[in-house]
Each structure stands twice: as structure tokens, then as C-alpha cells.
Protein: MFS transporter
Amino acid sequence: MTTKKHMNEVPMVQRAAAYLAILVGYVFYCYNFVVIDYVRPYIVDAYDSITLAHTAQFYTWQSLGALIGALSCAWFASRFGKKNVLITITAINGAATILNMTFTSYEGWAAMRFIVGIALGGYFTVAVSLMIGLFTDSVRGKLTAFASSMFSVAVMAMGAYAAYLSSVNASWENMMLVGGIPPLVAAAAMVFILPSDKKVIAFGEEAAKDDSGKEVEAKKGSWGEMFRGRNLRITLTCLLLSGLNFYGFQFFNGFVTTYLKEVRMFDGQTMGIIFSISAFGSLLGAWVWGAIADKWGRKVNAFGFILAGIMASVFFVAPSDVSFMGLNLLAILGLIYNFGLASSAVWGGYFSELFPAHLRSFGAALFHGGRLIGMWAPMVLVFIQERSDLQTAMWGSPIVWVLAGLLWLSLPETLKKGVFSKKEKAQATA
Structure:
């Protein structure tokens, strides 16, 4: 067996470049995930055969694809290498997004969102497990949180781009098409930049050795191991927590443009501005919560979900015509809401840390594994909306966020110096 070198032998410049390449892919992982939510009211207006209920199903098809992509790519990565799998699914993300706009029927859109979903679910799983192996664990919370903040960058760019398209009376289809080319470029760059996990031992993944001290092939993980012994409770809790996250997100974020357009009666330009400013809260929040997670522990971030629940409640009762420092009050409330929600930016690394090194990819996959629970959220909301109204249905969001925050607090702390880690040790010795 060929001896592998350790990641600390890879030049810092190459590791930083690899991280940046993954970030570019991450931006368009985020963009292509949420663009379907933003263009939802425009799809309904553009295609007579597609209804609001159909657009909710697009999210379900995309979520089903993400679930399959996350679970399968964790297995593929352990067999064929994380680098190879990441390049492949990044390219699929870009190509499928471009092809999506060649379809005008419900069936065509559903099929393409399913394929895009496979690539997106796989991307998160493999990208996170690769990313956290590039550097030491002392900066892991910041690294994964900063990557997650690319969601905010993507949404802010989306909102600004949508406002621009509206101002020049350009087609909304441009919002879909802009998500396709950058992932293809990122995939090509990854071929030359990413260290191969078949040749390099990542931080936290020490080489396995036999009794004579010779390196042997590292243990390969499996889903069966994730559902045995101590891992079982943690796996199920992570899946439920992730599922609640998707319900809370869809009950608010997934229909907020529809809410602003149909309930608050805002025009496209105002919607874009509110959307973009609100998203800045996620960007700032990811950086702040990442630093908090590295200093005081991953579980402290659970309080961000409770903050998000409170802000979502206030958003629904706040007046439409009140401004503060030139900004609409709803934009400010949305900013604070997204700031709290950004506490989950550490989940990729945190879910990985909850399990042994050879199960890292499987741990990261649990984030999208929660789609098994959360994929029905849009249809549940539409079901409630059809029997009441949209605003009543969206009130499910703050309830879900508070419940999710409490569930998060039931998981173990993985940072040894964390506040909750000290409490858990004290309870264990009591």
C-alpha cells in the first residue's frame, strides 16, 4: 500500500485555494436550492398549466433528490473518493440548472428539480467532509459557518439581481440561467486544485496502522453503523432536527415572496430589496455564530433558533408602511430573523464531529437526510393555506423554530472546552 502524506504537508496556498473552489460551488449550491422559492409566483403567472400547489411539489421533488443525493454520495465518497464525487456532482448541478429552462411543463420542471436536488444534496455532504479536513479543528466552526454564509451571499445576490431585472423589465428566467455556468467552471477548477483524499490524510483522520506500525487501508463507513449502538440516538435526533429545520424554513422563507406580493401587496423591486437586506442577517449571523461555536461550543447556537422564532412572530404583525433609518421595518425584522437562523451554519461540521472520523460523510449527510421529514413542508403549508389563508399557515414557522432549538440542546457537545461540555462532564461524574 502506498504511504499517504498528511494534509499539513500540503502547501497552505493550495489548501486555501481548495477551500475557495469549494466555496464557489457552495454559493451556487445555495443559489440553485432557493431560486425555486423566489421565482414561485412568476412560474405560476408564466405557465397556465402550473399552479401554486405544483410549485410546492417542485420543492418536494428537489428535496427527494437531495435526500437521495446526500445518502448515496456519502457512500460513493467512501468508495470512490470525495474529490471525484464532488467534481461530478458540481458539474451536474450546473448542467441540470441550465437544462431546466428548456422545459415548460409541470412534468419537465419536476424532473429537472429532482436531478438538481440529487446534485445539491450530494454537494453538501461531500463538500463539508472535505472542507473540515483541510484545516485543524480549532477553526472548524468558523470555516463551516463561513461556507454556510454563502447561502446569504447567494440570497442577497439573488434579491439584488431580481430587483435589477425588475427595474429593466427583463425576464425572470434569467434568475434560473445565472445559476448554471459558475458550477461548471468550479468543477473544472477542482480537478487541479483539490487535494486527493486517496493520497492525503485529512486533519482528524489519522492513518490506520497494524501491530507492526505499517499503514493499512482506512476503515470504510456504512449506513448500518450509523443506526447501531450510541450512534442510533444521535442519528435519529439529527434527522429530526434537520427535518424541523426544513419545515421552519419552508413555512416562512419558502413562501415569503408570495406573502410579500399577495398579502402585503409589494412590487417586485420592493420585494427584492427586502429579500436582499434580510439575507444580510444570515451573512453576518453565520460569521458571529461560527465564532461563538468555536469559543463556547456548538450547542450554544441553539438559542439562535429561538431568536428566529420570536422574530418570525413579530414579522407577521408588524405594519407594512413603517420605516427605520430609511429601511422598511419588515426588512429589519427579516434581517434579525435570518441572523438567528444562521446559528445552524455550523451543522455540517457539528454533525460530522458527532461521529467517528470514518463516518464523517455520513454525519454530514444527515443534514439532507432530514428531508425525508421536511420534503412535505410546502404541501402541508398549501393544505393549511387552502383551508384558511397564507399568513395563518406561515405561523407554523415560529412554533417549529422554538421546538427545534430545544431539540438541539439535547445533543452532545463536541467542543471539549464548550460551556455545555463542562456541564455534561459534571453530570456524568455526579
